[in-house]
Amino acid sequence: MPTRAGFIALIGEPNAGKSTLLNRMVGAKVSIVTHKVQTTRARLRGVAMEGDSQLVFVDTPGLFRPKRRLDRAMVAAAWTGASDADVVVLLIEATRGLTEGVQAILDGLKERTGDRKVALAINKIDRVEAPVLLKLAETLNAAYPFDETYMISAEKGHGIKELRAWLAAEMPEGPWLYPEDQIADLPLRMIAAEMTREKLTLRLHQELPYQLTVETEAWENRKDGSAKIDQVIYVARDGHKGILLGKGGETIKSVSKAAREEIAEFVGHPVHLFLQVKVRPGWLEESERYSEMGLNFKDGNA
Ligand SMILES: Nc1nc2c(ncn2[C@@H]2O[C@H](COP(=O)(O)OP(=O)(O)OP(=O)(O)O)[C@@H](O)[C@H]2O)c(=O)[nH]1
Ligand SMILES: [Mg+2]
């Protein structure tokens, strides 16, 4: 049997469940997930094996109508992910259906995918009734010539086996692209920064999560088997720093604890995490911040 390997881009509106699906496929949490939109900011690869096929899933930022430089760079990164992949999986939320945003994505897909296969994955089927689902599948297939339709719950695991088997068969013949035991293609320092950003996003409200970024500045593996990790949280305004710290430093403490526990579990050894908050009014216009996130600054040009 020849080996197969290829890239599968997961695209869709913000909050569709792309990162949840990637984590489910990989069998570990490598991409952060929140109930808020625009959680994922850059492309991230997760690797899964299925028989002789290596499936390299590419998680992408949600596709929406961008307003800021950061948003434009995110959307550009998502479309690049779709254009570079062997197969595209479009995730749609069963509860939302064919929205204006989905229609815009379908229009974009027609221009960009060429003769590549595009599968429709209707996600969150645990939240709707069967008749609604069937009607939605029909509507979406009338709007776009999908090669396949899958009804899944990325969170609960429904329909995942079928989607995986199809993807494995669709991968082009060729050598594996990653060692068999590798599950993610993102430096540890970035995964750790993302974990902290996830905890911040869960803890903070309104615009704040969208106005900050986290960077790992130093990572020191110590002789005792632990690691000392220094991270900086850039915020855009003085007032944000106060909110982030919270009364008596309560907020930042709880974020730090949650992030430390998750990073430690991921790396498999104890972690000492030090968070520093820096007010940087112009960070959303600094190219270095974008390269740290894995984004292209110029993609954000208006
Ligand atoms: N009920 C239900 N919730 C789900 C399912 N899949 C994902 N979710 C939830 O949907 C929310 C968004 O999930 P994400 O995986 O972060 O979505 P995303 O598409 O990566 O979002 P962005 O990164 O913002 O584009 C989270 O609260 C998930 O727990 C599912 O199958 N069923
Ligand atoms: Mg995501």
UniProtKB/TrEMBL annotation:
GTP binds at residues 12-19, 59-63, 123-126. Residues 12-19 are annotated as: G1. It is found in: Cytoplasm; Cell membrane. One of its GO terms (cellular component) is plasma membrane. GO terms for molecular function: GTP binding; GTPase activity; ribosomal small subunit binding; small ribosomal subunit rRNA binding. Monomer. This is GTPase Era. The gene is era.
